[in-house]
Structures are given as C-alpha cells and as structure tokens.
C-alpha cells in the first residue's frame, strides 16, 4: 500500500524555491535528486504536488516490473496502474511555457 501524502512529505526537508518539474516558483520544495550537465552536478528540487506524482510514477513502474518478472503470487494485492491508495492532493497545475 502506498503512503499518504503527509507521510511521504514528512520524509523530506522542505525550503522555499522552484520546482524543476512544474516550474512553480516561491513554493516549498525538497531535493529529489540531481542531474549532471557537462560534468557539473545540479540538484533537482520538486514541490509537494510533484513529489507526490513522482512517487506515483515510481509505484507504477515498480508494479509493472514485478508483473513482467512474473513474481506476483496469489497473496500479493497489486492494483492496476493508475489506481492509488490516495487521490492526488491537488489538481494538475497549468503548463508553464517560458
């Protein structure tokens, strides 16, 4: 079963900044990884909404990998991709075009 949004968000250190995924600025963000460009490493920060969505994507990919390996047993309770234990907490943000 997946985490509730508050449980997931509690695993991160939050600060005001800009989200790499939805491009919102001045919102609480957490470091979720990094990217290297020309041998320079830049941290990636995501807002709460995008952290939740990234976790959903991770969960979906994990379920698909298990199913491809055929490791699902009768005791496993996997839901079809797209069915989450909790709904997305916010409506999808509008696209930001630079």
For this entry, give a set of tags.
globular; 98 residues; 28% helix
What does this structure look like?
The protein is α+β, with helices and mostly antiparallel strands and 98 residues long. The chain has two helices and three strands. It has a three-stranded antiparallel β-sheet with strand order 1-2-3. The longest helix is centred in the middle third of the chain and has 22 residues, at 48-69. The termini are far apart. Mean pLDDT is 76; it is low at 86-98.
Distance between the termini: 38 Å
Kindly provide the radius of gyration, computed on alpha-carbon positions and rounded to a whole number of angstroms: 16 Å
Please state the overall shape, judged from the principal axes of the Cα atoms: globular
Strand content: 25-35%
How many strand elements? 3
**Total helical segments:** 2
Topology:
Layout: H1 5-9, E1 15-18, E2 25-37, E3 40-47, H2 48-69
Antiparallel strand pairs: 1-2, 2-3
A few lines on this structure:
This protein is of the alpha+beta class.
